[in-house]
Automatic annotation (TrEMBL):
Superkingdom to which the source organism belongs: Bacteria
Membrane topology value: Multi-pass membrane protein
Entry's transmembrane regions: 6-26, 31-48, 60-79, 100-122, 128-149, 161-181, 193-213, 233-251, 284-302, 314-339, 351-371, 377-397
PANTHER family membership: NA(+)_H(+) ANTIPORTER YJBQ-RELATED (PTHR43562:SF1), NAPA-TYPE SODIUM/HYDROGEN ANTIPORTER (PTHR43562)
UniProt name for this protein: Sodium:proton antiporter
Length: 621
């Protein structure tokens, strides 16, 4: 058997295992572990300590890790969601502002357009390949943005979804354009440049085959039987698909990353991301083995001394960092109308983080010869700096106490009181505008936020600063006032995110075709409830009684005092219970010996008082 030196792998995985462990132990959550891995790779590499050098098998594993990272990026994109959003799209400003995909696409195109003048300016000081840099500039560090959006609670909101979509689009199109440019550099303007289209053909063929196989019950039974234990048939199939597309890309002489990306994109069409055990296993394979090798190997091969080959190399790095932030933040200002200036700047700053995809693109440029060693080192260094600065700017500009209102309730009815109670229970940011003294006393008694407005009129709405992203709920007791306020919001303020009360069949409040406005028909709801009481009396009585007493809520652990404690060590309220615990992509049922970690999301059930106590314990209020 040919002798293989496993020492480099031992050293690499000692780093890969120790870095996140130490960062978590020291509670240094704001520094991404991959940054430390790259830096330690530089330290053990041939240009510093010279503990590890280049070997063929290490190069193979690192390249596979790079391709697997791109494969997982493709898996993150929800193609079905993009298609469904486009089907309802109209070329109007309101439609663009309400369409997550179009907003994200606009930010990407803005970044791409700004990259050329920014790089032309940089090119006045340093000799660079402007075209390749312009294709590389819009890439977004998804591995940085996703954890930060999760920790800030924005991941499921529209703001977070726009940032995620923009990052996915930027990486998709950057990979595609870099692959085409790579083919141009290798083969010039000839027929071979069009061979990358075979990737699209393969995508359509494999998709058709996959749909047919999914309809075969015999195939599904075999897959289910072989899914677990020693066979792991789904994992093997996913890896086979990954390598199939990489091989196809290699055969048609285009970049293998394009094949890896489309393999992930194809697989994402056939799995349910929130519940798929396959996705957890592929993440484990990628981030547990292949991807750490890639990042640490980037550091090992990074010739830090080559930075001095560029005159004033530190100035070049700072220009790159400034370019990343400027070209990303300016297009993100399109979010001002939806979320306000500070939130738009925070989003643009977070998208300025560059890491895995940018570093990977730089490796392609290095292999093509359009970048030299010093430029590659400068790009990696600049990417690391953005990963340190971007989260800091995001947290500074996205402070919760400075956010504008998420929900505006106009009204003084009992319905607005009940709705305010539920919003408070779920920690939804809202303000209710009231004009009746009787209802004001009830709001005071329950410590609900409100402002007194006398009278509640269209003139008041004109003075109220309402963002396009704000949800306005019209719940006054006057049918005529509901009509007037909603018509003013729709026609004068051009606001479309409205929920309003429709009290009779003659109520001609809103054009049913007007996008974004939803009506609640009081009489229809009453008729449906009476129908349920008549046809399903026992079920309705049970649900009504239970809802008054017990409620369900999701709470994220942010109290450092209970971090790493066992469930049985914490005095939770006896009138409530822990139901589900989520940690990263893993979902499980907590028991006495389950550890509680910062960032875990707990689903709890209990009375109103119990839920308040749960929040005190888990959030440290």
């Amino acid at each position: 058997m040919h002798h293989l030196d496993y020492y480099p792998l031992l050293l690499i995985f000692a780093i890969a295992w120790g870095v996140p462990l130490i960062l978590s132990w020291l509670e240094i959550g704001k520094i991404p572990s991959v940054i430390v891995e790259i830096i330690l790779g530089v330290m053990i590499g041939p240009f510093v300590l010279d503990w590890v050098g280049e070997t063929p098998y290490m190069e193979f594993l690192a390249n596979t890790g790079f391709l697997f990272l791109i494969f997982l990026v493709g898996l993150e994109i929800d193609v079905n969601k993009i298609i469904s959003s486009l089907s309802a799209f109209h070329f109007k400003l309101k439609s663009i502002l309400s369409n997550t995909f179009m907003l994200a696409m606009g930010i990407y195109l803005g970044t791409l357009a700004l990259s050329f003048p920014a790089l032309w300016l940089i090119g006045r000081f340093h000799d660079i390949n402007v075209v390749f840099y312009a294709l590389l500039f819009p890439t977004v560090g998804i591995s940085i943005t996703v954890p930060i959006l999760k920790s800030s609670g924005e991941i499921k909101r529209k703001f977070g979804q726009i940032l995620l979509m923009q990052g996915s689009i930027a990486n998709l199109l950057s990979i595609l354009l870099i692959s085409i440019y790579s083919g141009y550099v290798k083969n010039g303007l000839d027929f071979d440049l069009l061979l990358f289209n075979f990737i699209f053909i393969a995508f359509l063929v494999f998709h058709a085959i996959g749909k047919k196989l999914n309809r075969l019950r015999t195939f599904q039974k075999v897959i289910y039987r072989l899914e677990h234990a020693a066979n792991q048939i789904k994992v093997r199939g996913a890896v086979a698909l990954f390598f199939a597309f990489v091989v196809i890309a290699t055969v048609v002489e285009t970049e293998p990353i394009l094949g890896a990306f489309f393999a992930g994109l194809l697989l994402s069409l056939f799995i349910t991301k929130d519940r798929s055990a396959l996705l957890f296993k592929l993440d484990g394979m990628g981030y547990g083995f292949f991807i750490p090798i890639f990042f640490i190997n980037v550091g090992i091969n990074l010739d830090v001394s080559s930075l001095y080959q560029i005159g004033e190399s530190y100035g070049f790095i700072l220009l790159l960092v400034a370019g990343f932030f400027v070209t990303q933040t300016i297009p993100a200002l399109s979010l001002v109308r939806l979320f306000g200036l500070k939130k738009a700047i925070s989003g643009g700053s977070l998208l300025s983080a560059r890491l895995g995809e940018t570093v990977a693109g730089a490796q392609i440029g290095l292999a093509l010869g359009v970048l030299d060693e010093s430029e590659n080192a400068a790009i990696v260094t600049a990417s690391i700096i953005t990963c340190l600065l971007a989260p800091m700017v995001y947290n500074l500009m996205n402070r919760k106490d400075e956010e504008h209102k998420k929900v505006i309730i106009l009204g003084g009815s009992r319905a607005s009181l009940l709705l305010a109670e539920r919003f408070k229970l779920h920690n939804i940011s809202f303000t209710t505008y009231l004009q009746r003294d009787e209802i004001i006393q009830q709001f005071d008694g329950k410590s609900l936020p409100y402002q007194v407005v006398k009278p509640l009129s269209t003139h008041f709405l004109a003075s109220l600063k309402i963002y396009s992203g704000d949800l306005v709920i019209v719940l006054t007791e006057s049918n005529l006032l509901n009509q007037q306020l909603t018509a003013f919001l729709k026609n004068e303020l051009k606001h479309s995110k409205i929920i309003t009360r429709k009290q009779s069949v003659t109520h001609d409040l809103v054009d049913n075709n007007f996008e974004g406005i939803k009506t609640v028909d009081h009489e229809e709801l009453m008729a449906g409830h009476i129908e349920d009481i008549v046809l399903r009396p026992n079920a309705i009585d049970s649900l009504s009684t239970s809802f008054d007493v017990y409620r369900i809520e999701e709470i994220t652990i942010s109290n450092k005092a209970i971090n790493r404690k066992l469930v049985k060590e914490v005095a939770f309220p006896p009138t409530g219970s822990l139901v589900i615990q989520k940690r990263g992509g893993e979902v499980f049922i907590p028991h006495g010996n389950t550890h509680l970690l910062l960032g875990d999301q707990l689903t709890v059930i209990g009375t109103g008082a119990a839920l308040a106590e749960f929040r005190n314990i888990l959030e440290g209020r």
